[in-house]
Specification:
It is built from 17 helices and 15 strands. It has helices spanning 54-66, 86-96, 126-136, 153-156, 193-208, 222-242, 245-258, 268-279, 292-299, 324-335, 338-351, 356-371, 386-389, 392-398, 410-414, 433-447, 469-493, and strands at residues 22-24, 29-31, 46-47, 72-81, 101-108, 114-123, 142-150, 282-285, 303-306, 374-377, 380-383, 404-407, 426-430, 454-457, 462-465. The relative contact order is 0.14. The structure holds fe (ii) ion.
Length: 495
Amino acid sequence: MSLRCLPRSALSVLSCRPARVVCHAANVRIVSRPLLSLPILPRPPAVLTSRFHSSQAAALHDVNRASGSAPLRTTIYFKIVDKVGSLDTVLSELRKLNVSLSRIESRPCRTKGFYDFFVDFGARDEAQIDNICEQLREVVLELQVVSSGSTDLVAMQTVPWFPRKKSDMDTFADKVMEYGEELDADHPGFKDPAYRERRAQITEIAKTYRYGSPLPHIEYTPQEIETWGIVYNQLTSLYKTHACREHRYVLPLLEHNCGYHPNNIPQLEDVSRFLKESTGWTLRPVMGLLSSRDFLNALAFRVFHSTQYIRHHSKPLYTPEPDVCHELLGHVPLYADPDFADFSQEIGLASLGASDEDIEKLATIYWFTVEFGLCRQGKEIKAYGAGLLSSFGELEYALSSKPQKVPFDPHKAANTTYPITEYQPLYFVAESFKDMKEQVREYALKYMRRPFVVRYNALTETVELLDTRDKVVRYANGIRGDLGRLVGAIEKLGA
Ligand SMILES: [Fe+2]
């Protein structure tokens, strides 16, 4: 198979991947621009300058420490009418209540004519929080205490915003770095106005999607289905010998349950429902290139952002960006595997509130695993990375004797550079997805300087900060209950 390297200027466009994503067509490898070289988008849309400085935070922290009690770091959400003076009224009320804000952030409300705000402050106790809320309710339309807990206020000043619940992802749904309808001059569809219009149409559908809605149904054209069929037949012919056993196990299930077939492009809604029932993962349409942070943060909630458009029909075995072929054939089957699902979520959890430097390292780990990972199965090495499983050419190359293969080590992977215009010279080989999950968890605890620990509450589908004694005790009690049931089950089995 010949390798076609593109000039870097031609390698941008679009990706749902978090970083330096290489997108693979069947026998040709095309590379998208390294995303981490691009600036991370600020929190959308406007972050107002806080009038509360770190020195004040330190002073408040010291006062509370001197008095023997840490401040309750509190986040409040409120909605106001989008008009001059609305915010002043709220701020004036807060001044009267002697509240010092450590953060104030605005976002456009989904209802036109209103604005959402999030403010952070340190409170003496819960009674003070109640009083503040009671007074503010007089001047705002909606108000809610998002979180409150005894946390190191100074340390939290530098923690980037991150979603706490699935609907928070709506805030960055349309804050993409590049849009799906933007094509580079050398894109096969660049001079095809009908293709460009189609891309724009599908991108617009993704733009309007909000959490909780059914995933958009795309009526694919015969031409698009034909393109899918060519890719499908090419790739599936290699899976038997090259794909990991988990991928080989799930693909027939997807054919049976979700309409995977050379003559049919599956709908995200059907695939997402299947994943939800299998491992709790869901898909979410994406209109363009998300920042590494936003993309990885979504993994913490078992949400995978997926494109819905397909490559240009003139070159079915070539694409300069991820498309439905890459998502549905490369990524989706593995997200139905419980161990891989857990592993991917572990990367996402590690990314919540992480520094930019740590986000880059996590994105590199993602690159060497979710996109280009190999694993040992028995005496053989197989592919599980979506970049490989959607590339006819690199799939064969990766399992040949040409590239170097080393045992997976997250610390080593995070600090390994890689080329973006040619096949990888080095692949990391995992012993198992379970091992990888533990390794990434240990890596996050050992090497990342995040001042808190998070856990995912699968019942509420929210992320919880384990930052107060009460929360930790409640969490421990939950584990104790599960352990009791486990012991009971083992005893009943006579093990
Ligand atoms: Fe990918």
